[in-house]
What does this fold into?
Amino acid sequence: MPRHEDLLTEFQLFANSARTVELLMERISERLHQELARYNWVGFYLLDPKDHNFLIVGPFVGSFTPNTRIPLDRGLCGACATTGKTIIVQDVAKDHRYLPGTDMVKSEIVVPIFNKGKFAAELDVESYFANTFPAPDQKFVEDIAALVGKYMESAI
It folds into this structure.
């Protein structure tokens, strides 16, 4: 199984040739879900270009259908979007903000993605196990989000 550094290098190399940010997001979602056993749902939420009060689901991989549209004032994804900060919940049952897509999820990390300093999207990883996201995982997911943001900034 590839380590965090190996996957990050893979994503950086792919970003150099990815034709669109959607393809980059798809590759990241697929590989994280495939290679990291506790990353049971991996996907992106994008700021709705038609209504900036909502997030819409982007590329994702996982065993359940996610919330497809989330108001910015709801859920962990909304909290991430409005604060611009990483949200980590090691036990979602203990956080009133959690907006369930399935009752199987036990922990979640949501990391903001910025395009030219403005919130544009977020990377959301959900696990069927509590306490899945220690500090090394947080840094790893934040590094991936920064990579996607850098790609967005350089896209024409």
